[in-house]
Amino acid sequence: xxxxxxxxxxxxxxxxxxxxxxxxxxxxxxxxxxxxxxxxxxxxxxxxxxxxxxxxxxxxxxxxxxxxxxxxxxxxxxxxxxxxxxxxxxxxxxxxxxxxxxxxxxxxxxxxxxxxxxxxxxxxxxxxxxxxxxxxx
Length: 137
What we know:
Blueprint: E1 2-3, H1 13-17, E2 23-25, E3 33-35, E4 55-56, E5 80-81, E6 96-97
Antiparallel strand pairs: 1-4, 2-3, 5-6
């Protein structure tokens, strides 16, 4: 998902609806918001909260548990992802677990050859810094 800068009115309704804290204020004066694509799990909770429809799908990014995500397959249907709430010390990717296991890196722990495709975006897209432009008042 992404926020359209020219449409966003900075009301903040989306920010309160995000369960992962993926939305952040980019400009303290205008109050515009953006989405951290590494924390966004494509749940869509923010979509109905935006009164001006400024949040839209971002075709550049994998949709968690959907387009491009290996966890959307039936083969990995019982695997859950922590969606970057905790990261692997080795590769920086999100951790996965089966229903009975502890969290672990799907690539670095040697159990799987697949992992989060969002990791491939790290080299192409700069990671947003939610502290830039943060309004601390």
